[in-house]
Structures are given as structure tokens and as C-alpha cells.
Amino acid sequence: MSAKENHFAGESARRYDTSHAGMFTPEEVDPVVGLLTELAGEGRALELGVGTGRIALPLSAAGVPVHGIDLSEDMVAELRTKPGAEQIGATVGDFATTRVEGAYSVAFLVFNTINNLTTQDEQVACFRNAAEHLEPGGRFVVEVGVPPVRRLGELDDTVLFSTGPTHWGYDVLDTATQSMVSHHITVEGEHGRYRAIPFRYVWPSELDLMAQLAGLALEHRWADWHRAPFTSRSTAHVSVWRKPA
Length: 245
Prior knowledge:
Elements: H1 11-14, H2 16-19, H3 26-40, E1 45-48, H4 56-61, E2 66-70, H5 73-80, E3 89-92, E4 104-109, H6 120-133, E5 134-145, E6 158-163, E7 167-174, E8 179-188, E9 191-200, H7 204-213, E10 217-222, E11 236-242
Parallel strand pairs: 1-2, 1-4, 2-3, 4-5
Antiparallel strand pairs: 5-11, 6-7, 7-8, 8-9, 10-11
Helix pairs in contact: 6-7
């Protein structure tokens, strides 16, 4: 396993599905699986940051052979407890550099996982790694938020993104380095739990340049998995880059 710090180990891995329960609903999952199934065609899919299998399991159930890479051994262990997991190959390692056998018609990174790579060099390496796994004509798909700097005040560096009776979340951004730390405060009964996870936010145009360096060309950019148009007001995007045939 990479020496990179793992923020999804132990209790964080065991609680992952319940703490992100809203992302496991059919309304969230089905559009993702539908688009990836279409892009995979008769080929195979590679998920970078497979986690506990939120997308890999239903994608496999839809008939697409799936292999996943994840830094967290504990997240992969959670995946292995679920029905259908025996159909999914999984490799523990840094998805920016870890190579697995075979060629894939689609590789994908969802739910802001590209931001878990906290340097530009790592993100560039990830695009190269994805491109090397793709067969000619294959696609690399990334789902990620648009950096929320527009929501910052003139002297502020904090964006509140979640408020509720059991969870508060806020991001602290450094616009000089594009670094961001997500802070989570969770209330469970009479007890509270605090987590801080570092990220590096990245702009759509920057991702396009990373793709170009890896020999990929932008094919589509949508605001969501329903393929809504991407505009200057979009808060996230689903982008598809294609390897030359």
C-alpha cells in the first residue's frame, strides 16, 4: 500500500455507508450507473477510489465487469461483506499510480474523489494512470464539484456546506494553494465526533489540461448525471474525456 495518509480507515470505513446514506439511494445511484453502463458498452470498467462499492456493485449487477482500486484496505473490506462483491476485482493501492492488468473501455472517479489527491502532481499522475488503463476509444469520467470560491466573502476562507440536527460541515479554503480542509462535526446521542479531511480543489479547465497531458480529449461536460447543461452557475460537473481510437 502507498505510504500516503489514509483518511478512510477503521471507524471511518465502518461508518462510511451510514454517514453518506443519502448518496446510496436509487435517485443518486441509478443515473450514474446508467451513464457508465452506456459508456462501457461491451467492455470493462475501472473505478478509481472504489470505496465500499456504492457504484461498483450496481454497475456490476447491470452486467459490466468492474475492477476497483482503493487506498483503504478497510473500505475494500467493507465492500467484500456485500452481496455481489465476489464479482468485483479490487486492488489496494494509490489509484493515482497503481496499475492493474487489462484494458478498460471506461475508467471513472465519482463523488469528488479526484480531490482526495492533495497535490497537482498527484492529480496529473491520476489522469495518466487512467489513460494507460484505457483501450483506444475508451473514456475517463470524473464527477467533481466546482470550487466554491464564489461563496467566499472578501476576508473569509470558510464555506458552510451542511447544517442539521446531527451533522455540521464546513470547508476551509486556501485560494493560494487550492488546498481545502473539510471539517465534519457529527452528533450521536449525547456524544460528538469531529473529523477533518484534506483535499485539493481543481477547476474544470485545469482538469482539461491534465487530460491533454495524458493524451485525452474532452468529449462531454454536463452539470450532473442527468446530462443537464453545464453553465457558469453549475456547482458540479460530470466530465468525459476520450482516448483516441
